[in-house]
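Sequence, please.
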């Protein structure tokens, strides 16, 4: 039987990291957090976590490290042989919550395995609202044993947990999720903006559509999405498609539409002008 991990390190104490720290602390985990911005220290401590300024110390102490940084480059720098997590003990597990290219995760997982360290992807869906409520959907890519080791940790902030397959597949699942989510957000705006132009109350229509075949997550959680990661999400999707030689014309178009939509999001009177 796998002994549950209790010492959890969190790298990244931003919009997603902070509520996760709070959930872990409330569930009895010993949680220490690091962020490149020392100004996050007070927020981490307010959530019940312990601030750790030194990554090497965090690495030596942690049984499981959750990584919530923004980009492939940052992740590579952390997990390279000479990176910030170079002092991880053999047998440690690193779970990457960040959305990155699947090949990045696979390469880092293979390199870490040579050092006796497990690296898996544990991508999360449902955004800031899900993080605040502890109702995230977590995709985990790794072996069955790695999944079993991590499941109890991510259950502190996830209401749904899915083992997607080997390392890297959680990134594929997240990319698919993002493609559909951004498509829905654009379609919702266009439908409600059209209704507004015809004199219908958009909120009345939105509530009606929730009972129809047009129902979708972002319509149910209208005005919750900041679109902070739309450009990066769809850039990863396009890179994945190019790598495998598949044309995804809607994803390419949606990247451009999201770029135009972001400053006008939820302003239906401005949409399409």
């Amino acid at each position: 039987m796998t002994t549950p991990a209790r010492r959890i390190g969190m790298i990244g104490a931003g919009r997603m990291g902070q509520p996760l720290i709070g959930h872990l602390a409330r569930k009895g985990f010993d949680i220490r957090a690091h962020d490149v911005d020392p100004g996050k220290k007070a927020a981490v401590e307010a959530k019940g976590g312990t601030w750790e300024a030194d990554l090497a110390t965090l690495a030596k102490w942690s049984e499981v490290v959750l990584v919530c940084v923004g980009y492939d480059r940052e992740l590579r720098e952390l997990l390279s042989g000479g990176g910030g997590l170079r002092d991880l003990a053999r047998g440690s597990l690193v779970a990457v919550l960040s959305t990155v290219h699947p090949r990045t995760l696979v390469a880092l997982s293979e390199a870490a395995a040579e050092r006796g360290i497990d690296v898996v992807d544990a991508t999360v869906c449902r955004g800031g609202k899900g993080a605040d409520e502890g109702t995230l959907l977590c995709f985990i890519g790794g072996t069955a044993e790695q999944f079993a080791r991590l499941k109890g940790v991510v259950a502190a902030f996830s209401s749904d947990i899915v083992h997607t397959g080997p390392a890297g597949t959680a990134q594929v699942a997240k990319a698919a999720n993002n493609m559909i989510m951004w498509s829905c957000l654009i379609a919702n705006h266009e439908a409600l903006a059209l209704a507004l132009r015809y004199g219908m109350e958009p909120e009345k229509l939105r509530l009606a559509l929730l009972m129809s075949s047009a129902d979708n997550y972002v319509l149910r959680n209208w005005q919750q999405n900041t679109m902070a990661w739309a450009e990066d999400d769809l850039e990863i999707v396009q890179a994945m498609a190019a790598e495998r030689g598949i044309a995804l014309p809607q994803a390419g178009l949606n990247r451009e539409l999201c770029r135009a939509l972001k400053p006008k999001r939820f302003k239906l009177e401005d949409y399409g002008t």
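Residues 7-166 form a domain with the Rossmann fold fold (CATH 3.40.50.720).
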